[in-house]
Amino acid sequence: MNWTAYLDGYCERLTPGLWGEPLNSLSNLAFLIAAIAVWRQPKGRVFAILIGLVFLGSTTFHLLATRWSAAADTGFILVFVLYYAAVFPHVFFGVSRRLSWLAIPVFLAFTAVVASLGGGMYLSALIGLVVFAVILKGEHRRRFALAAGVFGVSLSFRTADHAVCGNFPAGTHFVWHLLNGLVLYLTATAATRRAASEPDAAPSRHSD
């Protein structure tokens, strides 16, 4: 496989080149802003680093448009999603760390099922946010409901990118970045605030 091969996957990109996707590249600043905001919160360092990696991966991909940068983009997003799936039971329900990490293979299996039905990682993540909103209460329910709503709209913009090319050459993928910066901020702060209010559930503690 040629990992340096050029990929043209978005409406905005017309030719190879570092600035072939200016809006798609600059809109990744939403992830950087989210990472900085989460970093400043108690218990937020790990989430901030993971969001920062999403910023780096996505920016690199939309600047270079190569196969290896696409893998980095998807890979860093997957790392955030899997880490969140692993810490969610521990932070919100006090499940032991050892058992909480089992959420990773469960999520991967669920994603495989969704993919077999025509969906994928993003659809399974959206379903996960909806489930989180349903099973939680109070402030956390509202935060995850908002995150699910924003992510649903974001996913629609991602899907519509090529469909609008004829009328809007810039496409809509940049909106996916802007809204997902908010989604990552909402989900990360939900976990950090819960961890800060319940010291025994904090992600930084080593406990079973």
From TrEMBL:
The chain crosses the membrane at residues 22-39, 46-65, 71-92, 99-115. Keywords: Membrane, Transmembrane, Transmembrane helix. This is Ceramidase. It comes from Amycolatopsis alba DSM 44262. The lineage of its organism: Bacteria, Bacillati, Actinomycetota, Actinomycetes, Pseudonocardiales.
